[in-house]
Each structure stands twice: as structure tokens, then as C-alpha cells.
Amino acid sequence: MRKFTKEISALLAAAAVGTTAYASLVSATSEPEAQVEGLMVASDEMNDDTATAGVPMVSDEQIETTTEDELPPTAGEPMPSDEFIETTTEEIVPLAGDIAMADGDINGDGTFGVSDVVLLQKWLLAVPDAHLANWWAADYNFDGRLDVFDLCLMKRELIQSRQTSQNSLNGIITFQMSPSKEGAAEFLARSDAPKGSYENDELYNITPQEITDQFGFRIFKYDQNCESYLEYNGNVYTLGTGFGGLGTVSFAVADLNNDGAIEIYFSYSWGSGIHCSQIGYFDSESLEVSDFDISCENKDMVLSVKNGKLEAYVAKLVGKGFVNISAEPLDKIGEITVDNGMIVFSSVANQALDRIKAITADDIDAVTLSAYPPEKSVKLTRDQIDKMLSLLEDINLYEEDGFQNEYDGQWMRFDILLNSGEQISFSPFVHFFFVGNTRYSASYEPCQALNVFANSIIAE
């Protein structure tokens, strides 16, 4: 068995690691301080509260928030002396044969990432509580000890793996459920693992193995309450909700905003009484889950790639149970795009509204507002027209809704007469929006704001 020891007589030697060259040799010294080629070696008198000779310390908060683009610097910086290298006689269990392969996962979370690089630097600096779960995973040059060379090699490995991952994202990868029990018991053993809310609620890993192999994440889903959870880089994130619906249905991996970090997109449905489907995504850069302002009632959605674009379609569902669903695309609802660096959803239905939103106050000759009940019509002032146009900007249409219903409640209609003589009408109604006589499902709050505004005019 191999053992790591404190016996490091030279922390830096003449070597070239990747693109970084170290030409100075730093030896142990009995002097309080020794400066060699501009590199400061820490003295024996330094304690844990003392900054190490110009080497930037890394706080616990930075470990959680640091990204791959913010890796701790190495080249040309002062490195810690032998006094700051911990000693262990702990035997290392090799991964295979007599040599344990270095895979970088020193914190033992199952993945290799920037947190491992930061942890190794903290360990070399003897930061309290900097514990390496897998010692051998950091010994990249297989010399039986941990030093700055392993740190440099680890950083190079991370950069190369990131580039490989980025190259694989030249396209958009979509996938659907592939249920198995792989890793489910391990996930449930976590202290932060959400528990099933129904008796005999079974948890499944619904991630295809090739997706996990390529990107390192896993998605788990319960087969009764339909809730889904993403396990990414050692942490757990909730994907949408499954309450009253099917939960997650389809998925995609991409880097649409080209920031070097993947996004994990997913469609899901929920709702007790009213079945509602939505689309959200997890951003591995910000580590946040967000939902798009898109909702479809009494339908499910599936993500698909057409002509190099990530699009959403009405789904035709196939399969039994909540963890074994496959979906086929029917009618296009919209596409996920990037606008000024922001990831947004652009619906097909919004094209009908874009023409109205393009109208300016100078294009308008007059606007008449009609209410039923009461049967009353009012011509808008110029200030009221400006307010109407401003409220229209917040309206977001989801899809054309072909249902023909009788409507109960108040009806508001705006009739716009353009300077060209053309007439355009629209009507907000609860969470629907009419352009002419065509009804679209729409965002509720903006429609309600437009209705409140119209009522304030009618009431004058």
C-alpha cells in the first residue's frame, strides 16, 4: 500500500506543467523567512490566522460559489512551506491494482469539479477542516505525496474536461425517462433527500446512463407523487412540481447562452382540477432553477430539437406510470432562445401579438374601449393610450386555444383605429387574450392588470 508523508524537501522544482513553468527551487530553511526568486516561504511563527505569504486564502463561501472560470491562481504565486503540509500515515486503498488512479474527486461527492481544486489548495495551506475524502484522487503524478504539482495537474485536467464537455455541446441533447433503481438507495440515504409523500412511494433514477456518464448529473423521480429532483455536483435541486400532474416529462441539455456552463431544461405538468404544463431549466452557472412564462392547460409539453433549435411542442404521451413516460411532438408551441444574453421562451402565439406591440402612439388615430356589462364605450385620451400600450408589453401569449365557450363575467374590448385606416381589436379576459376573434391562453397577471385599467376608465 502507498502512504502519503510530510516529507517534501522541494515544493517547487524546475518543471513545466501544461503551459505553466516553474524555474525556481524552494528548499526548507531554518530562517524565519526565505525569499527565493520572489517566492515567499512561510515562517514557523505563522499561525492559522496569518495570511500565507501573499497566497490568497479561499473562504468557505467561495467553495460554494466559485465557478470554473474563477479557479484559484497558481502560476507565479507564493506557495506554502513544508510546515503547512499535513502529515498522514493513513493507508490508501487503490482503485485498481497497486496504483490508485487520480480522478480529481477528493471531496468524495462523486464528481470532479472546481470545488475539488479549491479544496486541495486549502488543504495545502493547512486551512482548518480541509479534509480530503479520497487522498489518492489528487496524486496526479503518482509520487506518493501531495504538492503544488498535483494542484497544477488537477487544474489542467479540469480545464481539459470542461473543453471536452463544451465540444460535446455543439448540438442540443434531448432525452426522456429511462427508469432504473441505479443510485436510488444512495440518494435516499442523503440527509437532504426529499421523502415520498405517499405510502409505498418508490424513487427511480430516470436519467439515461449515457447522460450521467457525459455530464455527471442524475435526475430522480417518485412514481406516485411525481416530484423530481436533480442531483448535481453533490447538491439536490427540485425540478418543477408534480402535484396533481405528471411531474417531469422530457429533458434537454445545452449551453444556449454560451457561458461555458450547461443548462438542464425540462417540461413538467401539475395541477389539481386544472392540468397545467410548464417548462423550466436549471442553470449550472448560477445553480438556480427557473420557470419560463409559458403555460398550457389540459395538455403536456415535450422538448424537441428542430433545425438546431430547442423547441416545445404539444405532447402525445406514450407509456404507463409516472416514471416511464415517453412523449412525441405534435403542434409547435414555441422555442427557447437567447435575447441579449438572457434565456427566454418565444411562443408561436406571440407572433400574433407582436404586431400590436409594434404600434406606437404616433401610429394611432383613436382607441375606443367598450365594456359589457355595462354597455358603455369610451374614447381613450392620449395619456390613457400610452398606458394601454405600456400594459400590452407585459402580455405573453402561450398558444392558440380553440375551445368555444360561453363566457360569464365582464367583457372588455379595445378597438384601435390606425392613421392608415386599419382597425385592430383585442380583448383581455382572465387568463385568455383575444386578438380579433382568435383566443389564446395568456399570462394571468398582465391580463388582469389590463382589465383593472379598463375598469378604471369605464368607472370614470
Walk me through what this model shows.
By secondary structure, the chain is α+β, with helices and mostly antiparallel strands. It has three domains: 2-167, no CATH class; 171-345, no CATH class; 350-458, Dna Ligase, domain 1 (2-Layer Sandwich), CATH 3.30.1490. 18% of the residues lie in helices and 32% in strands. The protein contains eight helices and 27 strands. It has helices at 60-65, 114-124, 148-167, 184-188, 209-215, 350-357, 382-392, 444-458; strands spanning 2-3, 15-17, 20-22, 34-36, 39-41, 91-92, 173-176, 203-205, 218-222, 228-232, 235-239, 247-254, 263-270, 276-283, 288-291, 296-297, 301-306, 309-318, 326-339, 342-347, 364-372, 376-379, 397-400, 411-418, 423-429, 432-435, 438-442. Strands 22-21-24-25-26-27-23 form a seven-stranded antiparallel β-sheet. A hairpin with a 2-residue loop joins β2 and β3 (20-22). α2 (114-124) packs antiparallel against α3. The chain is elongated, with a radius of gyration of 30 Å.
Shape call: elongated
The share of residues in extended strands comes to: 25-35%
Oligomer: single chain
End-to-end C-alpha gap: 88 Å
Q: Which descriptors apply to this entry?
A:
single chain, 460 residues, alpha+beta, Dna Ligase, domain 1, seven-stranded antiparallel β-sheet, six-stranded antiparallel β-sheet, 8 helices, elongated
